[in-house]
Every structure is written in C-alpha cells, then in structure tokens.
Amino acid sequence: MNKLIGFTRKFSSSAALNSVKTVTVVGGGLMGSGIAQVAAQAGQNVTIVDIKPELLDHAQKSIQNNLQRVAKKVHKDDPIKMEQFVKESISRIKITTNVEEAANVDLIVEAIVEKLEPKQELFNKLDKISPEHTIFATNTSSISVNAIGSGIKRKDRFGGLHFFNPVPVMRLLEVIKTESMSEETYKIMMEWGKSVGKTCITCKDTPGFVVNRLLGPYSAEALRLYERGDASKEDIDIGMKLGAGYPMGPFELADYTGLDTNKYVLEVLHKLTNNPVFRPIPLLDKMVSEGKLGVKTGEGFYKYKKYKGEARLARTSTNAFQCCVVLCQSSQANIACEDPYCILVTKSDASAKDIDTAMKLGAGYPMGPLELADFTGLDTKQSVLATLYKETQNPVFGPIALLDKLVAEGKFGRKTGEGIYNYLEKI
Ligand code: 3HC
C-alpha cells in the first residue's frame, strides 16, 4: 500500500513537472511582454492580459521586433527558418482584456503595476476562478511575496518569479521560495524557468531578493557621490564600465530601468530593512517629480532622442573615476555578507554561488560580488572597508562578522586557497 502511495506521488509529481504548457501573463508592459515572448519562443501557449488595449497592441509589436532580433541570431543563415520562428512564436500568443478568459492555464505570472493592493486583488480574484492545479507567480521586484499572496488559499502553489530587463536577453530568473510553497511547486517553477532559457537561482522572500538588494546600495551610493559633486555622472558611469567591467554605468542603468522604479525599490527596501543606505535621495525625488524618468520619457540623467540612447558614453575615456568602483563594489559585497541586516550568506537567504550567479546573469557583471571579494583578497577588502568606514561613518562600510572571521583564520580568498569559496583541489 505504502509502495502504491509512493508511486502515485512520484507519478503525480513528475507529471506535474512536465505540465506547464499553457501560461498567462497578466500585465502587458515591458516585463510582461518579455516574459510572454520567452515562453512563446519555448513553444508554450501564452495569453497576455491587460486592461489597456493599447498596451496589448504595443506588446505585440515589441514582441514581434524582439523575436526578429532573436531569429537573426538563432537562424542567421536561413531566412526561411527565421520567418518560421517568428511566425510560429507569434501564433502562440493571444491577447485579451478579460482575465476570466485566461484563468484556466497551468501557470499565471503577474507583472502588473508595482503596488501591493492591485496585486493582492488580482490574485484573490484568480484564486476563485482558476482551476486547482494552476500555479501563481508574481514578478514583483521588491514587494513581499507573502504579502501579495496573503489572501489566497493556494499558498502552496504560489511564489515569486523575478525576471530582469531586457527579459529576452538577461539570462537570470530569481525563484522566490516562500515558506508555504510546496516542494512540487518549487520544482515546477525551477523547471519552467529552465524551459524558457533562464538560469534559476533560489532566494527566500527577503527584501529585494538578491539582485535588487545589491543593486540598491550600488545605485544609491552612485547617486550620492554625484549629488555631493564628488564626480560627474559621466565619470561614474565610465568608472564602473571600465574599472569594473559592468555593461552599463549606474546612471545609464537607472535611466534604463526607470527612475520611478529605482525610487520605489529604494523606498520599499528602506521601509523593510531600516538600513540607512536605502534612505531617500533628494536628487532622485526631484527628478521623478519633474517627470524625468529615464529612457521611457526621453530624459533622465541623460537625454534620449526618440527614446534611443543618444547620450551613450564614450567607452574609452581615460578619465575614469576609480574611487567610485571601490565604493560601489564594497557596498555590494558588504550587503551580500554582512550580519545585521541581511541577507544573503550569513542568514542563508541565498547561497554564495546563487548570489554571484544572480549578479552575473541578472545585471551582466563579469564577476559576482563574493567572487570578486575573494579575487581582490578578503584582507584587502577588510582594510579598504575600515578606511571607508572611518572616513564616512556610513554603516554600509561597517565591520562584517563573516569577513573578520575569515581574515582571522587566514582565509584571504584565492591567494590563500580559501576565502568565501574554497579553491584548494581535493586529493
Ligand atoms: N530583445 C531581444 N534582444 C535584445 C533586446 C531585446 N529587448 N535588447 C537587446 N537585445 C540584444 C541585441 O540584439 C544585441 O544582440 P547581439 O549582441 O547578438 O547583436 C544584444 O542584446 C546587445 O544589445 P545592444 O548591442 O543593443 O546593446 P548592449 O551591448 O549595450 O547591451 C544590454 C544592452 C543587454 C541591456 C546591456 O547593456 C546590459 O546587460 N545592461 C545591464 C542590464 C541590467 O542590469 N538589467 C537588470 C536591471 S534590474 C531589473 O531588471 C530588476 C527589476 O526588478 C528592476
């Protein structure tokens, strides 16, 4: 009898693992259309729901354009296959303004406005009209996943699937595992992420998850550096690109993701963590109130002609401001492994490997912050942080128990064979 139960469980679980064939994406904006695109590209039938018909039209057009970019890469020497790929992918996408028409699917991913109440209302409604087996996921960038799903009954079939902009290009998917999520749902989410071409990392329902938690202090420190007049925005951007190998500088990235999004994420992180590194930035508040939101409005830190990056920076200037590289990277590695607030390593909200993977695939960094700390040397990092803390009294540079412990044990990173990671070959 027990054997039979075991078999049935195994069977139902593996059947479920292959079961995401139909997907609904609620929200037809930039993120929603990107999510729909990667699912359709992977052969799944997708419905995009939005209350605004004009957004749905726009989503279809932008998906068509982006599919053509993908097709050029995948089938570059074969125009017939290129056309077929675009045509077939597009034919798998339906649009509707009526969520009830799209509730009967295997997976529903929500990517609507970044506000708690509308998200809660949507899931409460979906919970009533969707079949039992439907799994729900939110693409929230900073709101608590548990709070979003607090009103639904199927808490075991609910979690976070956090994508990165531009969705078709960034290879990362953060799977947010809540305490009430079942192992089966977690496996389905991880498998689904893989099926749409993403590398999945796992994070608990902790403020900002991995990437936004680390991008927040980076972006905030860059803004304050500029606000104080310590360096120009151009030099800070060049510094991070040439000194750290990032694909965009912090001001280019803020313009790209939207200053309103940046402000909102910082506000939420400040509220949830009370960490002063996330405190309000007057310059950001002013720009948002003036409607300067970045690429989408034609002006942010830079001006954009027809929303295309007119103000692209020269990648070869020699005037890079290296000090901001140290400041920004230190703050990120600090947040990644510090004791009191976070997060990641010491509180095991995410593993060291997943944190590094997240920053490489979600933000295009050449190394993750913890790999970089091992690379530069934990002893060096400790002394740089001590100097920065002494000079600025900024708690983001304050002592880190994990770092102090590793250095005291002589584990300095790559040069000693062990640091956050172990580099010694096992015999
Ligand atoms: N769809 C499909 N392909 C696209 C695309 C899209 N929307 N956008 C760009 N691409 C492709 C291009 O076709 C090009 O392909 P190719 O190399 O084969 O020619 C490639 O991507 C590079 O594009 P570009 O040449 O136009 O420009 P760049 O080389 O400057 O790369 C970038 C653009 C990929 C955006 C790069 O600058 C980058 O990685 N920036 C960092 C982005 C980042 O950090 N994103 C995360 C933001 S945080 C977030 O999203 C979380 C949220 O919660 C706020």
Instruction: Tell me the domain tally.
Output: 2
Tell me, briefly, the overall form.
globular
Tally the helices: what do you get? 18
Q: How large, in whole angstroms, is the Cα Rg?
A: 22 Å
State the major sheet: 8 strands, mixed
Q: What do we call the CATH topology of the largest domain?
A: N-(1-d-carboxylethyl)-l-norvaline Dehydrogenase, domain 2
Strand order of the largest sheet: 3-2-1-4-5-6-7-8
Number of strands: 8
CATH class of the largest domain: Mainly Alpha
The distinct bound ligands, ions and cofactors come out as: 3-hydroxybutanoyl-coenzyme A
Give the structural class: alpha/beta
CATH architecture label name of the largest domain: Orthogonal Bundle
Q: Give the helix proportion (percent range).
A: 40-55%
Low-confidence stretches: 1-17, 307-324
Strand content: 5-15%
**Distance from first to last alpha carbon:** 46 Å
Averaged pLDDT, please?
A: 87
Question: What is the helix/strand order?
Answer: HEHEHHEEHEHEEHEHHHHHHHHHHH
GO biological process, one term: fatty acid beta-oxidation
Enzyme class: oxidoreductase
Keywords: Mitochondrion, NAD, Oxidoreductase
Pfam family, one: 3HCDH_N
